[in-house]
UniProtKB/TrEMBL annotation:
Residues 14-41, 46-73 form the CHHC U11-48K-type domain. It comes from the Eukaryota. GO terms for molecular function: zinc ion binding. InterPro entries: TRM13/UPF0224_CHHC_Znf_dom, UPF0224_FAM112_RNA_Proc, Znf_C2H2_sf. Keywords: Metal-binding, Zinc, Zinc-finger. It comes from Megaselia scalaris (Humpbacked fly). This is CHHC U11-48K-type domain-containing protein.
Length: 159
């Protein structure tokens, strides 16, 4: 690990070269310095950046590289998005469980069914009297209501 030096009497931030502690390099010159300096240490092996396998960095430079690696930022962003997606999935699961519990419960009541997340299932399963189609004759309306009543009662009995 490298220990960046922060001289108190200087406003210029100096970093310690990872290859040689005697090299105190300004932060904005470090990249250029490393290109030259690493040539003096050809025996030091390269290692792979944890954020991008195409980044080959000499071991002493790894900490410095990781701090600046452009793929680190994008990876952290990606991970956050992934966590958000996972939260949505969990919410969906909760909705499904809620719906199933309401549907199978013996004392389920009509009002609570409105909390289900799927409007289509709600319409198919809710024990709410649907209105007879507009323009129906009174006899048709009566018939429709009778059918509705039958549909709801059979659902309540669990048939
Ligand atoms: Zn150096
Ligand atoms: Zn990298």
């Amino acid at each position: 690990m490298t220990t960046p030096a922060y001289p108190e009497d200087s406003r210029i931030e100096l970093l310690t070269c990872p290859y040689n502690k005697a090299h105190q390099i300004q932060r904005n010159r470090m990249q250029t310095h490393l290109i030259k300096c690493r040539k003096s240490y050809p025996e030091i092996l390269k290692t792979v950046c944890p954020f991008n396998v195409t980044h080959l960095v000499k071991e002493p430079e790894l900490a410095y590289h990781v701090a600046l690696c452009p793929d680190r930022a994008s990876l952290e962003k990606f991970r956050t998005q992934d966590e958000l997606d996972r939260k949505d999935e969990i919410n969906d699961e909760i909705n499904v469980i809620t719906y199933q519990q309401l549907g199978s419960s013996e004392n389920w009541d009509c009002v609570r069914v409105e909390n289900t997340y799927n409007p289509k299932s709600y319409l198919e399963n809710a024990c709410v009297l649907r209105q007879a189609p507009a323009g129906s004759k009174p006899s048709q309306r009566k018939e429709f209501r009778a059918a509705e009543f039958k549909r709801i009662t059979s659902k309540k009995l669990g048939n």
